[in-house]
Amino acid sequence: MIRIVIFGDSIAYGAYDKEGGWTRRLENLLRERTTADPGYRYHIHNFSIPGDTTEWLLKRFESEVRGVIEQRTADGTKENRKIIFIFAVGINDSKVAHKSGKSLVSVEEFRKNIQKLIEEAKRYSSNVVFVGLTSVDEKKLEPITSPFGYVYKNGNIKTFEDTIKDVCEKFKVHFIPVFKRFAANGHEELLEDGIHPNSFGHQKIFEIVKDFLIENGLV
Q1: Fold (CATH) for 2-91+105-133+159-215
Q2: pTM of the prediction?
Q3: Domain map of the chain by residue range?
Q4: Residue pLDDT, tens place only, 3-27
Q5: Is the CB of residue 7 less than 8 Å from the CB of residue 47?
């Protein structure tokens, strides 16, 4: 049994998509493979929470993973399993204060949090994957978010994705770049409300993630 454990925010949760987001699409793909080949056994645990940040994720990571680790087979014996961690978090960390323009989470602190997540995940598996961040429609989004004191800026989001990439390279874990491919060729059409992908956007992320996982022999 191979268990894929996903940690992320509202985008990984599947918000604004009637099909359940890119994570549900991945789950459906693996379910089809399992049905076609009984020896191909995958199960997805999606622990994504809307609004999540790396700081909040670090606080709940251990308890969420423990539940997966302690699962047993029908006869009560410990299950022989392989775990793949997929992290899709960071866009909420990247938001900036509307008035000052400063990041609510510094790049330095974000870097430390990504490193801690990798260190925690490696205690249970060598298969760790980070998914990059999606771009936003700033013009559509700013009137909605600025009254709350923060906004999302593509420049800052890209900086945070680059930070994830740098840390992943340093600690030799997988990184899936998303920002440039999502932003290319009219990304506004891939967004529901300026930040959350619509069904077309989730399909785009799914294809990027799926291709990477297959090319790297993870699924």
Answers
A1: Rossmann fold (3.40.50)
A2: 0.94
A3: 2-91+105-133+159-215
A4: 999 999 999 999 999 999 999 999 9
A5: yes
